[in-house]
């Protein structure tokens, strides 16, 4: 599968094209919802432009729990429709990108006075299997106490009664987003990050396009379009206000926080979905060198562009982990990284943050602006299908050409060039490890490349072979960066370290080690001066501090 050129080095040309041509659809928002919509619409034959005010996936779509999961807890809310849909979607998204959506066994400990009793868990997981059409080894098992302790020796022996054992999938949400957007390019879509919609313009009192500010150059331009979809996540209501259509249902933002620990500090053998004393549930998920835990669910009404983790969030998560894994005794200084994101849910009067439905809703204004909010990472493909179906219906009503049916369940995402199952991915990891181990790389390094880039790893290895740096890790990171700049619209060091590679979350020491050589690479490729490099250095240093420093000085 050939890599399409998708680079901010061609930004001027992209802006010129967006401002000259007329589109069928403009999608506002480069998160997983917007990316899914762009792919769905473009693959059905619409001429699509997508714009994002920051970097792709820089909002909610890089800050989830990073699970493609069926929402077991929604069974407790009797939300069977949601469980069925997202449960079925897991297998589909895994098929589309088996290198990026990885099978993950989940252990659900049953404890004295816990949220889930043995009978309820057994019935619940059985219903879950049926609704989500789970087959084979992925079907749920009920474990006795001894079996559960063997699988996870860190569990609290005194209060443990047994466990449920079932299958989910783990992903990198930001990479899933960028691969959806890149795949949409193969169907003719155009996409631009750092392009903020500031207003709409109208013809015959209907939205006829958007006014955009290029955040990089400061210039302004317009994109003409027959339809506009507002998929801006937490910022959906702001755009509805600009359109004078913020009526009826509105967003209710809740904050979710995750903490990251070295795996040796929290050495769980597989993912655990466990009780918190206040009645909520939480995940502990091993990933490469680290284990991360989350999440919180609290109301949020502050600055959406700066979602901080306060000390209370960290203490809450630490206490929850120490309660379930009493042998561990984690402390604040054990936190190596963290992230916090917002869930753009639909407000329901009288419901607490964790009781709010995760269903998506679509609003159409009198001027024709279509807005979509709510939903879950797992259901992004179906959300996209529903909203593009709205456009298909409008086109039929206006006697335009009939739009094709949604076929995204059969469109492999970039990086999946021939993988059919995860076992093929494992074989490929071993093959790539065989190629790079003589240079001094580890199996983890091969796993990291393939679970980020899939078959696109080969392009990166070609670049790696052409570079001369003595340090193999600097050389490989430069090869990754070149790929990110040429094919993934990397514009700043934060794009690369946070959203294209996840290093800030899952290998924060590598960010410290690679910062200076990669800043030098940015300087050369983007032809910027030392002043710009200093700005990037300060931003990156501040990001590292924000995500990793939980000393009392933060209070």
β-strand amount: 15-25%
Q: Biggest β-sheet, characterized?
A: 10 strands, mixed
How much helix is in the residues?
25-40%
- Alpha-beta content class: alpha+beta
Number of strands: 18
Backbone shape: globular
Going by CATH, the homologous superfamily of the largest domain would be FAD/NAD(P)-binding domain
Distance between the amino and carboxyl termini: 50 Å
Total separate domains? 3
- Which segments are poorly predicted (pLDDT under 50) over 5 or more consecutive residues? none
What's the CATH class label of the largest domain? Alpha Beta
Do you know the CATH topology of the largest domain?
FAD/NAD(P)-binding domain
Question: What Rg do the Cα atoms give?
Answer: 23 Å
Mean pLDDT: 91
Assigned CATH architecture of the largest domain: 3-Layer(bba) Sandwich
The total of helices stands at: 18
Description:
By secondary structure, the chain is of the alpha+beta class. It folds into 3 domains: 8-60 and 174-249 and 359-410, 3-Layer(bba) Sandwich (FAD/NAD(P)-binding domain), CATH 3.50.50.60; 104-170 and 252-355, D-Amino Acid Oxidase, Chain A, domain 2 (2-Layer Sandwich), CATH 3.30.9.10; 422-554, Helicase, Ruva Protein, domain 3 (Orthogonal Bundle), CATH 1.10.8. Helix content is 39%, strand content 22%. It is built from 18 helices and 18 strands. It has helices at residues 11-20, 32-43, 73-76, 80-96, 118-131, 145-151, 173-185, 236-242, 311-324, 380-397, 422-436, 443-453, 457-466, 472-487, 493-500, 503-506, 508-526, 530-548, and strands spanning 22-28, 48-51, 67-68, 102-111, 141-144, 160-170, 190-192, 195-203, 206-214, 220-230, 251-262, 271-275, 281-287, 290-294, 298-299, 337-346, 360-364, 370-374. Strands 3, 4, 5, 6, 11, 12, 13, 14, 15 and 16 form a 10-stranded mixed beta sheet that branches. Helix 2 (32-43) packs parallel to helix 7. The longest helix is centred in the C-terminal third of the chain and has 19 residues, at 508-526. The model has no long low-confidence stretch (mean pLDDT 91).
